[in-house]
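From the methods appendix. Each design record in this collection lists the tokenized structure first, followed by the designed amino acid sequence. Records were kept in a plain field format so they could be parsed without special tools. The example shown here is representative of the layout used throughout.

RECORD:
FOLD TOKENS (395 positions):
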């Protein structure tokens, strides 16, 4: 008789079930407000839906080109230029993937060889480490440390970053705005990363799915590919899901110069080959005509962030500033729980609000045991209900 875990390939055994699936299941079991997994509880813009439906009605239900339907690649290239990032060739430089997640897998598998090293900032989105395991690469971690003031940001030690680069460094992963901390990397920080990447002949894989979700004018989103000398060594990943509240569509893209696009495409063609054709057409429509949807979304999320932060503070947590994404990190240590899992389990089962225990986002889980991650990408009434329930946390 075949055993369960014993049949799983060694590369996946350390990871177990995704924490997102685990906490969402716990939230459902206890009818908790799910502030754990980062998906909105409302639909995206009608222009996207209309574009997808029209594509279906027009018979566009067969395989898309491996690199993506031309209207979507053209829309991504136009948005890139509209955002002041320069002119790119939609045919040569844009590859459509099944969400940013598949783009990450394709970038790792197409670029890295066994024994290569990849620099990763922690806490990290769990895909970054799992992808390294798939590629046989070795991650080297750089810690993002909580701010010391109520207006500060998570920061890293320059010396630690410099020491993470070695003769075997092939890539560095940058996620800005950053999940789970809400950090927006500054130009100075990105310039340091760029300098080290150039010195060590490394490629930057940058995850920018939250690129339009920043909340402070003094902390704008900057694409590292736009810095001097970086276009030729950067794979920029993004997606439809976060900007347009359509996470389930799984439409993403990679923007890169031809040699790095070739790396992404070499793996992508054998992973999914193409994303869903009608949804690509819907994505193109949304990107071409975003209207004021992104601005309204930012306003909603900024208000949600402030309401949730205030409620968590009243409940006794130390809440760290979130300058981007739709996540808040908070320190629960003052409440007396043994670790983040104990806190998040209690919060879900007894209070009725689900959060993510972020120790799984650290190479050393002990580094995250005081923390919890909350998603505020919800309708206002959902946040209001979570705030109401949080009032019972200390009673």
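DESIGN:
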């Amino acid at each position: 008789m075949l055993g369960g875990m014993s049949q799983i390939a060694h590369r996946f055994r350390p990871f177990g079930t995704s924490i997102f699936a685990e906490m969402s299941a716990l939230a459902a079991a206890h009818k908790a407000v799910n502030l754990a997994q980062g998906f909105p509880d409302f639909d995206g813009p009608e222009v996207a839906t209309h574009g997808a439906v029209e594509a279906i009605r027009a018979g566009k239900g067969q395989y898309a080109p491996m690199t993506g339907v031309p209207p979507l690649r053209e829309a991504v290239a136009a948005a890139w230029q509209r955002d002041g990032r320069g002119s790119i060739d939609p045919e040569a430089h844009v590859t459509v993937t099944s969400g940013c997640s598949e783009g990450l897998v394709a970038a790792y598998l197409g670029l890295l060889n066994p024994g290569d090293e990849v620099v990763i900032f922690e806490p990290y989105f769990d895909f970054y480490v799992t992808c390294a395991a798939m590629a046989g690469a070795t991650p080297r971690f750089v810690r993002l440390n909580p701010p010391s003031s109520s207006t500060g940001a998570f920061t890293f030690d320059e010396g630690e970053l410099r020491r993470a680069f070695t003769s075997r460094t092939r890539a560095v992963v940058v996620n800005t705005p950053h999940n789970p901390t809400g950090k927006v990397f500054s130009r100075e920080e990105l310039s340091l990363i760029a300098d080290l990447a150039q010195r060590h002949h490394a490629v930057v894989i940058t995850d920018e799915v939250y690129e339009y979700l920043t909340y402070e004018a003094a902390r704008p989103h900057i694409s590292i590919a736009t810095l001097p000398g970086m276009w030729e060594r950067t794979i920029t990943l993004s997606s439809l899901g976060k900007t347009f509240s359509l996470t389930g569509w799984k439409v993403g893209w990679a923007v890169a110069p031809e040699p790095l696009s070739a790396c992404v495409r070499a793996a992508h063609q054998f992973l999914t080959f193409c994303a869903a054709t009608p949804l690509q057409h819907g994505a193109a429509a949304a990107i071409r005509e975003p209207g004021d949807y992104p601005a309204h979304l930012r306003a909603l999320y900024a208000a949600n962030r402030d309401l949730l932060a205030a409620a968590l503070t009243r409940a006794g947590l130390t809440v760290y500033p979130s300058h981007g994404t739709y996540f808040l990190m908070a320190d629960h240590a003052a409440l007396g729980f043994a670790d983040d899992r104990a806190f998040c389990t209690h919060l879900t089962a007894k209070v009725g609000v689900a959060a993510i225990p972020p120790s799984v986002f650290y190479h050393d889980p002990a580094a995250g045991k005081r923390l919890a991650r909350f998603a505020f990408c919800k309708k206002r009434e959902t946040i209001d209900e979570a705030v109401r329930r949080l009032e019972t946390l200390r009673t």
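APPENDIX NOTE: The CA atoms of residues 194 and 230 lie 7 Å apart.
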